[in-house]
Amino acid sequence: MAETDPKTVQDLTSVVQTLLQQMQDKFQTMSDQIIGRNILYFRIDDLEKNIADLMTQAGVEELDGENKIPATQKS
């Protein structure tokens, strides 16, 4: 807005419309990013639950991070 000072009501209206459009665009971008992150979070959460269910069905338990043994072989 520093480059042009509005001289008329039409100029002021144009400047305000431009600023509002820029704000709306930024808000939409931020909203899309938030929604995208939430969707990704829920997908990861669902994936973790599905993996845990499959491990339980297979009789596998997680020990020491990556080492997995069948539950039937536990001492």
Structure, explained:
InterPro entries: HS1-bd (IPR009643). It is found in: Nucleus. This is Heat shock factor-binding protein 1. Homohexamer. Associates with heptad repeats of HSF1 trimers and probably also HSF1 monomers, and with HSP70. Association with HSF1 trimers and HSP70 coincides with attenuation of heat shock response and the conversion of HSF1 trimer to monomer. Its main location: nucleus. With 75 residues, the chain is mainly alpha-helical. Helix content is 67%, strand content 11%. The protein contains one helix and two strands; from the N terminus they run αββ. It has one helix spanning 9-58; strands at 60-63, 67-70. It has a two-stranded antiparallel sheet with strand order 1-2. Strand 1 and strand 2 form a beta hairpin. The protein is rod-shaped, with a radius of gyration of 27 Å. The mean pLDDT is 81.
